[in-house]
């Protein structure tokens, strides 16, 4: 346990902040510490968490991408058109098309970075504009409300009516999110590819000398993010029950902030799936708590900013200093 | 590998020629390596050491006519894959490690590369890492991230990594460059063990003392040609220096008495908890005070305190008899103190910027005109210092990283001289600098002292302070434990006291 | 060479995403709306195009990628550079646009705004609903539906959108005066241009306030998001959601009862009015009290503040929604 705190400074700090916020919220609101609210948090965070774990893989590999949210919009639209065209389809086809399109868009980014040696930030700014511009151009901004039933039908994995008559439920996006999180965790910690991604992000030259296939690393990282973005797009269309071309525009910064908050380093080699999930949860819990507390929305941004600042400051301090009882020996110099 | 032990060479190269952009980097060089030996390649920067290593490891391809024989097989050239598969391992100077990953993964990284996508077998990785470390007789927490360890341990991790798989030849390029004396001793012991187990070690170092200490044979290169191969037995540092440079250097004690000169800086009872305590000394105009001691002796912390970057807990610093209290190094610079840091590459110079910009960065105040940098004043200052210190450069606009270690060091000194200091603190000024260039740097130091500057010269290499300082303070565990006049003691006396 | 090629590819990639409006000889009328790509403004664009064709003008709409006043400023700068005759704006932030609108007028460009009464820097602002009349209509409907009891929450597009806030003010004041037993939950929430945020905020508010019986959502996505939350909580029939929304988008929700309804004005009609007014002003005609203008009816302009405000409300309910949706709204 003590070892976890030492080796997972960022995650511990986030857990600490989340615990403190949760304690405060439990004391001052009746609603926060209820199973129903926990379910709400899961339901509403699912899409962002799916985006976040995808982005994490790119950050670990030393890249950055801001085009994934609009890529997800392109995927949503493309998938909706495709299933409309084949006359309906089902979840399996939808997921395959969305995932495939996502991987394709991610590979475009990876291909540009690899072929021309352009930094990933520049490539993704370009592709962000290109994806979104092309989407708006070809769709003329027209939304799709007529989606197949399998996509829009509400699926509750678990539902229950409480004594007071209200309903609580866990919906399909949560299941998809859990699968994406577990798959990403397995990829980065349990497969040789994942370890090469870390190594490549940590010291690209060192990895190259060791015979790590640089091109493969880029395609895997951006392809994985593309896959996650495609799935997230489909899931968002599922619960929104419509495809609005700019619905996900602007989401990239929220997700990027949460992932970096979760300890991933811009520059590569660092970041965990747990931290990434906690980063998203912290931002979500803050928003949820402010709503539950009935804080004036005029103060929201100020409070969210301060909490992020506190979390970042804590996670950059050695845990030994914050929790001195954990230290077994002096911190390494 | 028993059949190769003995006189039959494990590796031999003949007729090695290679040309880069019309320049013959190597000319008819030959090289020979036996299993179980520690072999040093000595030469100044540009002598062709690195090129030779890169040919052996397959990075470069020699010109036609080369003969390479490795473990009984002949090659016209070797590919990196062949070299690696044959057990030729390189520990690069930059180590090529992954700081965020665990020690175990760093050592057994080859386990996760290639052969398609597989699940990671962490137990196997740990076992490999522990076995490699055990072979070196070292124990480290293999689960901790590498970044938790200082450079000396990372060096050991890099060596352990080279041993994974069948290592027959291990190249070590300047492995001791950023290690202190005790860490170096530790590393050399490991290298000896390694050689004793049958591995051939090729050792490249600027530090001639350790070259003589560790190696059995020394191949000397100069200007891309082979000077000769010499047994280490009976060789001296000055003889190697002569072979490497083609010139002779006579180390002479420069110490003199400067008791008649006014005191520039006087330190009395200076202390910082757990770093140094009760330090007192004076430095006079034109005097060079040497401070030596092992890592953790507090020498660098003392220097940073004098330079205003750390605050003393007790004691006083007087400059020209007046007590001073620095709240930052800006105050110290204004008071006429200059500090040339230990880690020149990361702290002293801004590698990506030009030589000119590096020169003026500490003295921007003197080249301002109406609050803005005046190009003519800047150019004048730059030209003067480059000429004074004999820095060999192309253009002042070139990036500092294009210069050799010795010339970078001159620029670093010039940068501080441009602030017109009265006290110059040089902390390990010769780290990573060629032996020929070292002499040049100490000539500059002597000239500066003669011009009236007070100098504090810090080094963990006792000979440097012995030959170049007027007095030598020995620090250990934060205290001054000895003060020597080089004219009254032999080098051996002081070395025995410091390293003993 | 490789670098050059790389730069060229990157540049053309970006270029591919932008496209310029076609030049034409007819007088140009450029309308900058809050955000492109949402049905409301798609309908407005249809109105602009239709009326332009009828009056022989080159009318077009520009929709920024997000509801960001800075993007509107840039779009207006572009229109000034294109020498348009008339600039129409549906502002995201009245204050931020003031300088650039003044700049346009200095160049002799006529400026017409919509959904921003008393906009500084505009020649005329027109409203198809008075903020007071619109807000009060909602306040009255919510009060009636809730029987004058229970809590309600108010969403606006953003805390800085003046019109939404004026509606909210009028609705809240009306409820306070006529239904004193109703209670406003929290302050107003600036989420109603984002369907996901409206949904999660509505979920949180319903959870925190069991007494919450109604939502007033002013902003195109707010009613949709709140209705989704009501549906998710299975509180259809127990929680009322009112607000202006796009009938096509809300049709299903309205039929299921998750979305109760609302008032709107017809954005297509607003688009037409932009062009009709532009045409009139280009020709140098004066706006006079009591005259009848196509799309506005009889007008009584406020000459001091340059406002033309009429009440052309359209009720969205189960009966009217299909017809409105068929118009592409």
- As residue ranges, the low-confidence spans of chain A are 322-333
Radius of gyration of chain A: 21 Å
Low-confidence stretches of chain B: 1-5
Strand and helix order of chain A: HHHHHHHEEHHHHHHHH
Please, could you describe this protein's structure?
The complex is a heterotrimer of chains A (333), B (500) and C (329). In chain A, 71% of the residues lie in helices and 3% in strands. Chain A contains 15 helices and two strands. Chain A has a two-stranded antiparallel sheet. Chain B has 17 helices and 22 strands. In chain B, a hairpin with a 2-residue loop joins strand 14 and strand 15 (322-324). Chain C is α/β, with parallel strands linked by helices. In chain C, 45% of the residues lie in helices and 17% in strands. Chain C has a six-stranded parallel beta sheet with strand order 2-1-3-4-5-13, sandwiched between helices. A four-stranded parallel beta sheet of chain C has the order 7-6-8-9, sandwiched between helices. Chain C has a two-stranded antiparallel ribbon with strand order 10-14. Chain C is globular and about 60 Å long. Mean pLDDT of chain C is 87; it is low at 14-24. At the A-C interface, helix 3, helix 6, strand 2, helix 11 and helix 13 of A face helix 1, helix 2, helix 7, helix 8 and helix 9 of C.
Topology:
The complex is a heterotrimer of chains A (333), B (500) and C (329).
Chain A: H1 2-7, H2 9-28, H3 35-60, H4 68-85, H5 91-116, H6 120-139, H7 149-152, E1 156-161, E2 167-171, H8 172-190, H9 192-202, H10 204-209, H11 214-240, H12 251-261, H13 273-293, H14 300-316, H15 319-322
Antiparallel strand pairs in A: 1-2
Helix pairs in contact in A: 2-13, 2-14, 3-8, 3-11, 3-12, 3-13, 4-5, 4-6, 4-11, 5-6, 5-11, 8-9, 8-11, 12-13, 13-14
Chain B: E1 11-20, E2 23-33, E3 38-42, H1 49-56, E4 67-70, E5 73-75, H2 80-85, E6 88-91, H3 103-107, H4 122-135, H5 151-163, E7 169-173, H6 181-196, E8 200-204, H7 208-214, E9 217-222, E10 225-231, H8 237-245, E11 263-272, E12 276-284, E13 288-292, H9 299-306, E14 314-319, E15 322-324, H10 329-334, E16 337-340, H11 344-348, H12 355-360, E17 368-369, E18 372-373, H13 375-389, H14 405-417, E19 423-427, H15 435-450, E20 454-458, H16 462-468, E21 471-476, E22 479-484, H17 491-499
Parallel strand pairs in B: 3-8, 3-9, 6-7, 7-8, 13-20, 13-21, 16-19, 19-20
Antiparallel strand pairs in B: 1-2, 1-4, 4-5, 9-10, 11-12, 11-14, 14-15, 17-18, 21-22
Chain C: H1 2-15, E1 28-32, H2 39-55, E2 58-62, H3 69-81, E3 86-89, H4 94-106, E4 110-114, E5 124-127, H5 131-146, E6 150-156, H6 162-178, E7 182-184, H7 195-208, E8 212-218, H8 222-232, E9 240-242, H9 247-256, E10 262-264, H10 267-282, E11 292-293, E12 297-298, E13 307-309, E14 314-316, H11 321-326
Parallel strand pairs in C: 1-2, 1-3, 3-4, 4-5, 5-13, 6-7, 6-8, 8-9
Antiparallel strand pairs in C: 10-14, 11-12
Helix pairs in contact in C: 2-10, 3-4, 5-6, 7-8
